């Protein structure tokens, strides 16, 4: 198997952003070993906080205003039929940066064929649940409310997952999982028993923010570093890391790090 990306060092990374994302800070802090560099970003909103953050760190940002795109057509953002036309602009903007890998960091929109056909499987994204927890072969906690769903379902821990992006949302092969973040089960049970939705909502928010801040950035950065080192290979339905089925789980016994992989 060949590495997922076989590119000269440093690996060039472009990001897609829609809003501020605490995970992005880890990538902006840079790799002291020079294995990757942020070469550019494409933002869906001109006024999102991430634009100023990126430009402040010297990362060039192209803005493809999705709200203006839809407003010009008098359509709501939920209209999916014209999304490929918007994504043609996104793909062209990414092309100008010539990235080896595209990272979705706080990007709120489902990618369509113009981006996927150009860059998949070299697109990674982060999800605020453990995508290896399965039910009938499918991730049990996909979607926007994944952390809440896992907590209310009685899970004892949550994890952040970085995965490859595919047309099936949140169903791409998991690449790296964060360390586990224990759930305060007694608090959740008490809030549910009393019917106090405000307490429950506050806890879900706080737990998710804890996981994103302490686990999301390092997990995303680990995924980029693994790709940069040539340690990630793509199988039929999963990724391999150092020749073993993924994902890599942070906080567990580290794997032996080999020399950069070539064709085996």
Walk me through this protein's architecture.
The protein is of the alpha/beta class and 264 residues long. The chain has one domain: Formyl transferase, N-terminal domain (Rossmann fold, 3-Layer(aba) Sandwich), CATH 3.40.50. It contains eight helices and 15 strands. Strand 12 and strand 13 form a beta hairpin. Helix 4 (83-95) runs parallel beside helix 5 (113-119) and helix 7 (185-194) runs antiparallel to helix 8 (197-228). Mean pLDDT is 91; it is low at 258-264.
Apparent shape: globular
Text of the CATH class: Alpha Beta
The percent of residues in helical segments reads 25-40%
Major sheet description: 8 strands, mixed
With helices defined by DSSP (H or I, 4 residues minimum), what is the helix count? Answer: 8
- N-to-C SSE string, H for helix and E for strand: EHEHEHHEHEEEHEEEEHHEEEE
Give the tags.
264 residues, Rossmann fold, eight-stranded mixed β-sheet, 8 helices, 33% helix
Element layout with pairings:
Elements: E1 11-17, H1 24-28, E2 36-43, H2 49-56, E3 61-63, H3 66-71, H4 83-95, E4 101-104, H5 113-119, E5 123-127, E6 134-135, E7 138-139, H6 146-152, E8 157-158, E9 161-164, E10 174-177, E11 181-182, H7 185-194, H8 197-228, E12 232-234, E13 239-241, E14 244-245, E15 248-249
A few lines on this structure:
This protein has 264 residues and is α/β, with parallel strands linked by helices. It has one domain: Formyl transferase, N-terminal domain (Rossmann fold, 3-Layer(aba) Sandwich), CATH 3.40.50. The protein is built from eight helices and 15 strands.
């Amino acid at each position: 198997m060949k590495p997922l990306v076989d590119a000269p060092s440093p690996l060039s990374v472009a990001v897609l952003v829609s809003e501020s994302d605490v995970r992005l800070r880890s990538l902006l802090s840079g790799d002291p070993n020079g294995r990757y560099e942020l070469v550019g970003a494409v933002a869906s909103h001109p006024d999102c906080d991430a634009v100023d953050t990126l430009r402040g760190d010297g990362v060039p940002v192209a803005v493809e205003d999705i709200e203006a795109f839809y407003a010009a057509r008098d359509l709501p953002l939920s209209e999916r039929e014209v999304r490929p036309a918007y994504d043609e602009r996104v793909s062209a903007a990414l092309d100008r940066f010539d990235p080896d890998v595209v990272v979705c960091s706080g990007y709120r929109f489902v990618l369509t064929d113009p981006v996927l056909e150009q860059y998949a499987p070299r697109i990674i994204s982060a999800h605020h649940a453990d995508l290896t927890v399965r039910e009938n072969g499918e991730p049990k906690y996909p979607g926007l409310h994944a952390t809440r769903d896992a907590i209310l379902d009685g899970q004892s821990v949550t994890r952040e997952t970085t995965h490859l992006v595919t047309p099936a949302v949140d169903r791409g092969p998991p690449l790296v999982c964060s360390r586990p973040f224990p759930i305060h089960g007694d608090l959740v049970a008490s809030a549910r028993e009393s019917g106090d939705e405000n307490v429950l909502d506050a806890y879900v928010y706080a737990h998710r923010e804890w996981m994103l801040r302490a686990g999301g950035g390092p997990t995303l950065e680990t995924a980029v570093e693994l790709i940069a080192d040539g340690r990630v290979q793509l199988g039929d339905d999963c990724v391999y890391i150092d020749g073993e089925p993924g994902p890599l789980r942070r906080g567990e016994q580290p794997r032996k790090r080999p020399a950069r992989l070539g064709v085996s």
